[in-house]
């Protein structure tokens, strides 16, 4: 059976060179981007896990953080074109891609959704981050993106970034906290209430949410507590069968998708083998495992 990894990353060569022209210290600031599999597709093919194709999105390097809205949108369009070409040229590796937006140019981002995402079936949705331009992803300025995606039935991939106001950010815990906070902010903004068709796929199995389900249920109003279970989540926990079981119990099997964060997490190519083993060890039926590995993707994310 084919398996689809819905949350894998790239940093493609042309886009990377453009961003290095804006900030030559990027490799020092983000050491993980030095992983050669992010940009070398032939090397990536050498490390391919048999039977697995990936949905790819860019790592968290956003033009909006470096240039004005007009230039950011131009760089974003070029990056998206490179992303699309990579998927089209490597169908053995990639099952689709997720577009980048420039949230310092909302009008142009909405246009990208209309004339790029909707025009190319290989582009399955858009990627947002937990914070943009120093603001929560649920800031009202970004609401038109949620409204547009809900209207068109597109999925939003939600990826964490550090909150730069904090002095103690770390790769082990901080991103999981930021994801949890962003989920809380989206729920409290009542986006699921306003946009019933909204689909958001959260990295790292929904972070802290399943573990703190009791606190959510007893502290928040019931309609908001219930909205947390409307998120989709992936399995990118570097293994950890019990945590995956908890996520599946909370969000429901139909909301859990095989995702690895490849090629990051475990060198050189990511945690694909570890996560596949953890899914296999889950105390769920074989049909539920197959739903996580492929059928949920085919039923809910695939646009063909």
Structural account:
43% of the residues lie in helices and 15% in strands. The protein has 304 residues and is an alpha/beta fold. The chain has a single domain, classed as TIM Barrel. The longest helix is centred in the first third of the chain and has 21 residues. It is globular and about 50 Å long.
Q: Assess the beta-strand content as a share of residues.
A: 15-25%
**N-to-C SSE series?**
EHHHEHEHEEEHEHHEHHEHEHH
Could you tell me the CATH topology label: TIM Barrel
What general form does the structure show?
globular
Low-confidence stretches: none
Number of strands: 10
Whole-number count of domains: 1
Distance between the termini: 18 Å
Major beta-sheet overview: 8 strands, parallel
CATH superfamily: Metal-dependent hydrolases
How many helices? The count is 13
- The CATH architecture comes to Alpha-Beta Barrel
CATH class: Alpha Beta
């Amino acid at each position: 059976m084919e398996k689809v990894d819905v949350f894998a990353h790239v940093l493609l060569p042309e886009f990377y060179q453009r961003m290095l022209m804006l900030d030559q210290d990027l490799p020092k600031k983000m050491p993980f981007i030095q992983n050669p599999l992010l940009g070398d597709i032939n090397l990536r093919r050498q490390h391919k896990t048999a039977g697995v194709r990936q949905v790819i999105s860019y790592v968290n390097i956003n033009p909006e953080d470096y240039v004005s809205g007009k230039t950011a949108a131009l760089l974003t369009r070029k990056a998206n074109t490179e992303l699309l070409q990579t998927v089209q040229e490597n169908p053995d590796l990639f099952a689709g891609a997720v577009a980048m937006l420039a949230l310092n140019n909302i009008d142009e981002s909405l246009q990208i959704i209309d004339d790029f995402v909707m025009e190319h079936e290989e582009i399955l949705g858009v990627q947002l981050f937990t914070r943009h331009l120093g603001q929560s992803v649920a800031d009202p300025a970004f609401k038109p993106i949620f409204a547009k995606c809900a209207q068109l039935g597109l999925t939003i991939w939600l990826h964490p970034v550090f909150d730069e106001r904090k002095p103690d950010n770390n790769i082990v815990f901080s991103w999981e906290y930021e994801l949890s906070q962003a989920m809380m902010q989206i729920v409290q903004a009542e986006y699921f209430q306003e946009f019933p068709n909204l689909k958001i796929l959260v990295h790292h199995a929904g972070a802290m949410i399943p573990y703190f389900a009791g606190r959510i249920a007893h502290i928040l109003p019931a309609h908001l507590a219930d909205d947390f279970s409307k998120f989709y989540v992936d399995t990118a926990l570097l293994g950890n069968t019990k945590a995956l079981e908890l996520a599946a119990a909370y969000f429901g099997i139909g909301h859990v998708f095989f995702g690895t964060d490849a090629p990051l997490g475990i060198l050189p190519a990511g945690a694909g083998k570890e996560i596949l083993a953890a899914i296999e060890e889950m105390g769920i039926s074989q049909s539920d495992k197959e739903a996580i590995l492929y059928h949920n993707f085919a039923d809910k994310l695939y646009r063909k």
